[in-house]
Write a structure and sequence with these properties.
It is built from nine helices and ten strands. It has 291 residues and is of the alpha/beta class. Strand 7 and strand 8 form a beta hairpin. Helix 2 packs across helix 5 and helix 7 crosses helix 8. The longest helix is centred in the N-terminal third of the chain and has 11 residues.
Length: 291
């Protein structure tokens, strides 16, 4: 089992920063939503960030080395998790920071695949090891993170049961869906699926599976695909699902979709803040690092 978890936290958070009139948020919460990276918004006990809870679950799952990919203005992460660029001790986790730089001529980051590529360039040891990758603004369970550590598949992702996600149906309908074969090997990922094709994407259990950006990768075989990732023609970004599909085309039967049926709290927009706060109050009344 590997011990490396890379956390994507360098995005522009543009949807979170959109104007919204919500009477269930305080002025401080609105200010944080407009100014902070999503994973640093203080939705937890004593105003601690959502990222605390993800790190707690990562520790429960047995990860040791955490690489947080931050933006060029990401100094606030270091106030929470360690002032050094590498090897900060946070509750027994070894935390290092990679920076996702914005290429000249662009005003926002170049996507998740670009973020991971810049991280493995800054920490090349990852290219000879296995590692997991996830978002900073989703709270993945310790069980799901452990499943990524335990799998023997060279590459893998958590294939969530779409019906178990507690989001509005309109929002869920926009999630990319995965086509798996009878052995749960990834065949395809479809962005913005229409209702007409859903039946064709059901797995052997009859479930529609979606990815929430929780991956496990073999660094040595993924590197070339990361480096050569094309730009998505519509979103103008380099995206990890594209990298994964290109890897599958070259190396079939090497990417396992691990079936999971559970909710994944998500901080995408201001409307999510109250829901995530309520979830944490119910399931994480205290942050217990004793484990």
């Amino acid at each position: 089992m590997h011990n490396n978890l890379v956390i994507l936290a360098g995005g522009a958070s543009s949807r979170m920063k959109k104007e919204a009139i919500l009477d269930n948020l305080s002025p401080e919460e609105i200010a944080q939503a407009n100014e902070r990276s999503k994973g640093l918004i203080g939705v937890g006990a004593s105003g601690r960030p959502l990222l605390d809870y993800l790190l707690l679950n990562a520790k429960k799952a047995g990860y040791k080395n955490i690489y947080i990919i931050i933006g060029e203005q990401g100094e606030l992460f270091k106030e929470f998790y360690g002032s050094k660029d590498v090897n900060n001790n946070f509750h027994g986790l070894n935390i290092s920071f990679a920076v996702q730089y914005i290429p000249e001529g662009r005003v926002k980051p170049f996507g998740t695949a670009d973020a991971l590529f810049q991280a493995v360039e800054q920490f090349p040891e990852l290219n000879t090891q296995q590692y997991s990758v996830c978002n900073s603004d989703n709270l993945y369970s310790a069980k799901a993170l452990l499943a990524l550590r335990e799998t023997n598949s060279p590459n893998a992702f958590i294939a969530y049961d779409r019906d178990a996600l507690e989001f509005p149906s309109e929002r869920i309908s926009r999630f990319a869906i995965a086509r798996l074969d009878k052995n749960n090997q990834l065949l395809d990922i479809l962005e913005k699926p229409s209702a007409a094709v859903l039946a064709d994407y059901k797995d052997v259990e009859g479930k529609i599976r979606v990815s929430m950006n929780a991956f496990k990768f073999n660094g040595s075989t993924l590197y070339t695909h990361l480096k050569n990732c094309p730009v998505h023609p519509e979103r103008d970004e380099k995206e990890l699902p594209t990298v994964l599909l290109n890897s599958v085309k070259e190396n079939p039967d090497t990417t396992l979709g691990i079936p999971f049926s559970e909710h994944v709290p998500d901080l995408t927009a201001k409307e999510d803040i109250a829901d995530v706060k309520a979830y944490l109050q119910q399931y994480y009344p205290v942050l217990d690092w004793g484990i």
